[in-house]
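Bump. Still looking for Iron complex outermembrane recepter protein structure tokens.
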Amino acid sequence: MIKLLFKLAIFLIAFHAVGQNSLETVIKNAEDNTPLLGANAVVSGTEIGATANIDGEVTLKKIPNGPQTIVFSFVGFTTKEITLDFPRSTKDTLEIFLEPGGEEMQEVIIQSTRSRRSIADLPTRVEVISGEELTEKGNMKPGDIRMLLNETTGIQTQQTSAISGNSSIRIQGLDGKYTQLLKDGYPLYSGFSGGLSLLQIVPLDLQQVEVIKGSSSTLYGGGAIAGLVNLISKTPGEERELNFMLNATSALGLDLSGFYSDTYGKLSTTIFASYNIGSPYDPADIGLTAIPEFNRYTINPRVFYEFTENTKLDVGVNTTAEERTGGNIAYLEGEDVEDPYFERNNTNRTTLQSGFEHSWSEDNRLNLKNSFSFFDREIQTGDYVFAGNQFASYNEASVVLGTDDMEWIGGLNLWVDRFEQDVLTDAPVVDYEHLTYGAFVQNNWRANNWFQLETGLRTDYQNEYGWFVLPRISAMFTISDAITTRIGGGMGYKTPSVFTEDAERLQFRNVIPIDVSTTEAENSIGGNFDINYRTELFETIEFTSNTLFFYTKIDNPIILENTSEGVFEYLQPNGFIESRGIEANLKFGYKDFKLFTGYTYADVDRTENGNTFEMPLVSKHRLNNVLMYELHEKLKIGLEGYYFSPQQLGDGATGQEYWIFGLMMEKLWEDFSIFLNFENFTDTRQTRFDSIYTGSISDPQFRDIYAPVDGFVVNGGIKLFF
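Sorry for the wait, here they are.
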């Protein structure tokens, strides 16, 4: 009996020991040997797993006997598997090195800061729209970039014309005049040419879109108080690229575009061309267009020449011609209408740009940039006509010196902006000629693996408003591979201009010139603080989050006021504008599914002579939600939902809150794809729950447009790849 009990005890001890194996490991980044906080280790085929602590240490317990496969993973790093026999002959701690890789760690080189650092290696907070996201947005609205920007957290495109669709960009609730729009680093869309810019930029030749929120005047001069948007064009790759897109909409629109790039030895080229046409469209049946009649041609050839491996030149031309008319839809359809109301815009835009780069080492180079832009526009409403031509030129010479750990960037620039109004009435013209001379220096310092600092200083001299000194500072703290944080701020300025979205709403009728002797430039100070975190949830869901806190104050803002009946004048009352709030972005990835959720809280007030009131046309609360299902290079399905809270309107009323929903699908083959998009399928329209004008249809007095007016639109088409 005693022997039997002894054998049973030995058996139970041995049986219990089967699950008592343990494994101690340290998981590190293979590039810099730093521990990976939040990395995961799992015994394949079991529920045994653990997460690394701040030192990268992981202990797995109760591992069964026999050969076991251990899976090590971390968001943004390549998964690694090892097979071990248990019990092990030694108890030593294993070091596991994971290589950066995967979708979250694709290297994105940022151009807007003039440095060639990746997005993960910059103290300045830069948001990038690229790759699949850029392609998906292009499918939804191939004719312009309004949707691409409007569906980004913290950005709102504000429609300034109910019948022509003119729009401006608002970042963090600030007026569009405080955002600088660039193309490949050239400020081409300011002044008179800015009113239609969002409608005339086709997104299909873009490689990526870079957004810097908060004061960025140190980077590119005045005008970037709220931030800047830099549209980066495609450049020739290693292989020839030829593709075409044909898109049609239920709103009677058609988009046809083509892109070609190739390399011929030292010479390479890209050519982009598009044709966009729209018919007058009135889904509300109120007799006025929600989508105007338009006809637009765009062609953009660029040539790149590589003299040597270190010396390169590129030259390009961008030409756009458009006729756009909105208003009384019966009149536009050819019916005989007495005293019809319409707004006609005829524009021609030609830009010549060139860039030269010479590198004498991997980290040292000289850059020269030049652009000439010619813009003609005529606006007609009834018997009233406003027309003129704008010439703008941007010239910059910059040099980059140093190493990865200590980089210096310095440069000089000259910006010329001249407008001449056609003399058609006895009213005073709003001609101007602005010359801005600038000098800037920027330092990027990598102190160690966890701290980087970026500082900058710009000095501008403007021929009418004098000197401006603009410091800027940003710091990045890499707490671990899972957590980084950035903090930064700077100063900015904006010289007064008659060409704002307020004047655009009036077609510049009875807007008198700005009196330079009685006005000053608007000045700002602002700062951002953000926290980034990424990990794996439940060992299966990739999770990343970014939370941004922002604040901007603008002193002595220029306000357009109705000073007498029918006459509008820019005044500068004693006061300021404050924008403060939070942006939060969450991303979840599970197998072939991705969920993006963004929330924006923007509290924007204007204080004037001691009285404070809420700025109009600011959605204080916004939600952006996108659920994507994607089989790589085979199928994409996306469901979107966007919420806008009530907005204060210029007439004292409050707009209604609303949701917008969309559904997109794309089926891909090797040489072509077919896409279909149901935009705003719940048919959310301002004309369904509010009015867009008062008065008669022959003389409408338009109210603020705070919600869509075009409603439910279906578009679809085909893309060909050669």
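The helical segments are 2-17, 131-140, 146-150, 197-200, 217-220, 329-332, 501-505, 686-689.

Edit: fixed formatting.
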